[in-house]
């Protein structure tokens, strides 16, 4: 079963058949920071210190931390005004667990929590655009951004 707090649903055996206990936690716990950092590092995001992880998750009002057999293997977070706009950030799955539908489950959970919000934004990491388009996301015609970090600016901006 997959547990969302007190809500449980049957898991999709195609993705989850080999795992015993799958949970999505909606609350951030400082005790999880080291394990979350391992997930970031596994995909090459090495600048996320424990302090940064704590700060960004405490500032987020929509959180999905997916655990398999008690181990954090992926997560995502969002911020919203609850009516007009929301943004999804840091959908990350440990490299050893990628390709098993975990990011899709995290995104579906976040989108369900944001289902009453008029517009949900996200910035895809390079190479993952198709994944997000399958979830209904489309390119913006008028979107703009500003990055203080030059390498991020080079990667994401025209």
TrEMBL record:
One of its GO terms (cellular component) is cytoplasm. GO terms for molecular function: N-acetyltransferase activity. The keyword Lipid metabolism does not apply. The keyword Acyltransferase applies. InterPro entries: Acyl_CoA_acyltransferase (IPR016181), GNAT_dom (IPR000182), NSI-like (IPR045039). Keywords: Acyltransferase, Transferase. Residues 20-158 form the N-acetyltransferase domain. This is Acetyltransferase (GNAT) family protein. It comes from Ureibacillus acetophenoni. The lineage of its organism: Bacteria, Bacillati, Bacillota, Bacilli, Bacillales.
